[in-house]
């Protein structure tokens, strides 16, 4: 053990750790969840501190030797794998407001690593690593950087799922099926049309997530305390953000109102709302998959989902839609995390929203589990989806709403009477029309063909 001091006095720390007194105080104060900052947030903070060192050197706020040493320390930590690096960033996700403990954890670790590389220069956590910065502007900056990094994989998985379903739609385009509205029989359609609609949703979600990511590319760095820019050299923020963009390959930009950037976390809320829309839409699609695969004997059984595990400990041979059930539970969790972000976002008071740590934890966890769930769903379910064509054709041929195509010819009331007779007799609409000779056969065939439009026309519609 050894002793370090901060502005509140002496603190005892283990000899082997890289963090300092303020991090140890946070460990002592917040033994809450055992969950630490997400790796993306830690990496974002390290890149931010390296970029700040570049800006401080160019603005003359730090000498070149110290600036280079801070950058070198950041590169050493970034080169570690996540598990190795995690030991040096032990602050609980549930911590003091604004993320001061997280910021100081980064400052202290970088200073200690720098001192091990070159102890002669004497890197100080506040005076050098945190120069021209405040938790007020660095935490929201790091949070947004982390969101942009983490969400790239989510975008990729949405696109992959959409591509799988678009391929299925092409393969299934000519397979007829009965549509359902209000969970009741509706007009005939194509299975390919249904799958195509699902794929469109996935691609739309990818676009919405990118909109959320773009909102988070706006940074309030340089606002320092409360957005005032106190103790921040001229051009510091623009230089640092250009360096962050260079490091990450993302086009970050400086907010045009640093006071607003401190008060409001609306860009983070906007991204979270895109996650919410995603969860709602994917819940709907997963529910459809479960319904269409229900049975196999006493349900719809129009789709066959890959069998991934036994479905019951007591009923032999039972197989459940396990991957879709997992996905639904994930979307429910994402909705819960979004609700947490919403509460945190509205809790900002006056010049600062201090609820950022739980905001970051929730939104990064929601992004992580959604990405993993989509990958598992794609590989273990969507890739192996198969149509049960005999079952699909049975429902298609027996839906009484085939009559919809005949309504313009026979009239609504006459067609409704025909539907009721079909349901009582068990005969199909087409059988009754032919038996009653209500429509000449050539015209009847044309009307029925209109139910299954030309694929290109239906796709455009």
Walk across the major sheet and give the strand order: 1-2
Order of H and E elements: EEHHHHHHHEEHEHEHHEHHEHHHHHH
Mean pLDDT: 93
CATH level-four homologous superfamily name of the largest domain: Fumarase/aspartase (Central domain)
Structural class: mainly alpha
At CATH level 2, the architecture of the largest domain is Up-down Bundle
Note the main sheet: 2 strands, antiparallel
Question: How many β-strand stretches?
Answer: 8
What's the Cα radius of gyration? 30 Å
Low-confidence residue ranges: 454-461
Helix content: 55-70%
Distance between the termini: 72 Å
Tally of contiguous helical segments = 19
The gross shape turns out to be elongated
Instruction: Give the CATH level 1 class of the largest domain.
Output: Mainly Alpha
Structural notes for this entry:
The chain has 461 residues and is mostly helical. It folds into 3 domains: 2-131, Fumarase/aspartase (N-terminal domain) (Fumarase C, Chain B, domain 1, Orthogonal Bundle), CATH 1.10.275; 138-311 and 319-388, Up-down Bundle (Fumarase C, Chain A, domain 2), CATH 1.20.200; 399-460, Ribonucleotide Reductase Protein R1, domain 1, CATH 1.10.40. Helices cover 62% and strands 7% of the residues. It has 19 helices and 8 strands. The chain has helices at 21-29, 39-58, 64-79, 82-86, 100-117, 125-129, 135-171, 191-215, 236-248, 258-263, 266-292, 322-346, 356-380, 389-398, 407-410, 412-425, 429-436, 441-451, 455-460; strands at 2-6, 9-13, 176-181, 184-190, 218-219, 253-254, 303-304, 386-387. The strands form 4 sheets. Strands 1-2 form a two-stranded antiparallel ribbon. It has a two-stranded antiparallel ribbon with strand order 3-4. It starts with a strand and ends with a helix.
């Amino acid at each position: 053990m050894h002793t370090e001091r901060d502005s509140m006095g002496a603190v005892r720390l283990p000899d082997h750790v890289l963090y300092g007194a303020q991090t140890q105080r946070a460990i002592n104060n917040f033994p809450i969840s055992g969950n630490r900052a997400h790796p993306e947030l830690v990496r974002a903070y390290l890149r931010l501190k390296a970029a700040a060192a570049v800006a401080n050197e160019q603005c003359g706020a730090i000498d070149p030797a110290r600036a280079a040493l801070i950058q070198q320390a950041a590169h050493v930590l970034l080169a570690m794998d996540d598990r190795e690096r995690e030991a040096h960033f032990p602050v609980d996700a549930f911590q003091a407001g604004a993320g001061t403990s997280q910021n100081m954890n980064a400052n202290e670790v970088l200073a200690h690593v720098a001192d091990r590389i070159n102890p002669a220069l004497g890197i100080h956590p506040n005076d050098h690593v945190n120069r021209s910065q405040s938790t007020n502007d660095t935490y929201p900056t790091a949070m947004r950087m982390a969101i942009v990094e983490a969400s790239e994989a989510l975008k990729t998985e949405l696109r992959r799922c959409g591509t799988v379903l678009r391929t299925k739609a092409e393969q299934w385009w000519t397979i007829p099926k009965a549509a359902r509205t209000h969970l009741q029989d509706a007009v005939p359609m194509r299975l390919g049309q249904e799958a195509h609609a699902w794929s469109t949703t996935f691609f739309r979600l990818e676009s919405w997530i990118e909109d959320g990511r773009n909102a988070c590319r706006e940074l309030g760095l340089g606002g320092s305390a409360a957005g005032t820019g106190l103790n921040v050299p001229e051009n510091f923020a623009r230089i640092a953000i250009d360096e962050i963009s260079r490091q990450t390959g993302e086009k970050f930009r400086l907010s045009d109102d640093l006071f607003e950037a401190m008060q409001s976390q609306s860009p983070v809320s906007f991204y979270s709302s895109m996650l919410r829309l995603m969860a709602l839409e994917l819940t709907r699609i997963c529910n459809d998959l479960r319904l269409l695969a229900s049975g196999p004997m006493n349900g719809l059984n129009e789709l066959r989902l890959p069998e991934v595990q036994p479905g019951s400990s007591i009923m032999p041979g039972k197989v459940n839609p396990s991957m879709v059930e997992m996905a639904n539970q994930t979307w429910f969790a994402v909705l819960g995390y979004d609700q947490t972000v919403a509460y945190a976002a509205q809790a900002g008071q006056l010049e600062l929203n201090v609820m950022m740590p739980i905001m970051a934890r929730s939104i990064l966890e929601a992004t992580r589990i959604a990405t993993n769930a989509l990958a598992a769903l794609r590989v273990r379910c969507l890739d192996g989806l198969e149509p049960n064509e005999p079952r699909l054709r049975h429902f298609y041929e027996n839906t009484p709403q085939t009559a919809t195509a005949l309504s313009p010819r026979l009239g609504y009331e006459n067609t409704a009477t025909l539907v009721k007779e079909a349901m009582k007799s068990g005969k199909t609409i087409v059988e009754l029309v032919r038996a009653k000779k209500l429509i000449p056969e050539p015209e009847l065939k044309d009307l029925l063909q209109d139910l299954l439009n030309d694929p290109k026309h239906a796709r455009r519609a």
